[in-house]
Fold this sequence. Notes:
Distance between the termini: 98 Å
CATH topology of the largest domain: Jelly Rolls
Number of helices: 5
Strand content: 35-45%
Mean pLDDT: 90
Amino acid sequence: MKKIISILLSCGIIAIAISCVKKEFDEPPVNSIPEGLRKSIKQIREMYQGQAIALTDEMSVYGTITMDDQNGNIYKTAYLQDTSGAISLHFLSSGGVYKGDSVRVYLKGLTLTTYGGAIQLDSVNADRHVIKQATLINRNPELVTIDQIQANITSLESKLIKLENVEFDEGELGQTWADAVNKVSKDRYLKDCNNKEIIVRSSGYANFAAETIPGGKGILIAIVSVYNGTPQLVIREPGELSLDSTRCDGSSPNILILLNKNFEDNSLTSGGWKSKTVTGTISWSVDEYNSSKFAKASSYNSGDASSETWLISPAIDLSSAPSPVLVFESACNYSGPDVELYISTSYDGTSTPNISDWTKLTAVLSTGSWVWQGSGNIDLSSYTVNNVYIGFRYTGTTTVAKTWEIDNIKIKAEN
């Protein structure tokens, strides 16, 4: 009997204990962030007067996240836009907000400053400063031109924009967005059909860094940025681009660039190029005028000395190139022989060129007065083999010697 009573008492105690347990768990406390005075992005940008400002008042700004850092093209950064303008947000750590988030940003504790000349809100903590209002909100990009970006960089800075009828410069074709192997950011040049240019900047850490940039003309959607006074664009993802139409000059969007030398790296020999002197002491070198670099050969300042020097390309494989053409630009001044263009399939790549077989090619050359002249398309379809060399032969005499400049040497073909 005592055992039964004991068991009943135990069960009663257990029942009472169970009945005292709450069946609903407490929700975590909500971090209440005051709104304070509501500001537009335009009003915030106008607060910046050339020096960093620590924001100490109760203020908030509302907007939509137009770009986040999830694909690695930007780091610990997002772009916020409302109807009045846009601004960059720099976070203490990556993540926390995503493209399409409608948010309120609490401004107290942030710093209004610049990076590379672009205005930003610095030291943003996603948990303490950002309150999400909604997700998957689509903001349409503003249709602009490259000219408008260049002329209105202050009002367009950090905005989501769309460009139409644009293409990457021929010199960029075949290049990747950035250097994914060495994690190095790269500038690629985008232009319209009036040859107005703007930089597209991509990070070596972007998950698309190793992809090849598209070769056609069309639409590009991006964020406008600025670095040290130079406007530039940052794309959100390559899938938003539609650059697959015929290019401005009517060429195929699948154009291949098999040789590209523009000397902007200030090196004559990068990429396997070489200068070979046959007679005299002068050789080709890199020169610069109005921030543009080019190859130059001249014995004009050497007392019109007798000279022969060659600028020779690396070996080029044209064996799979359909209808390849060579183009370049030239400028010259003074009196003397014209520069000559040659091609060889027997040159060994190292010897003095005058011991090999070279065929002279016809090109349109500058007529003088330092006026740059395009060569026109020089047909190389008779040389679709491997190990093809291009050579520019400069000569001068003891009585006359021109100065010749060569730039933007390309061999291109349609894929």
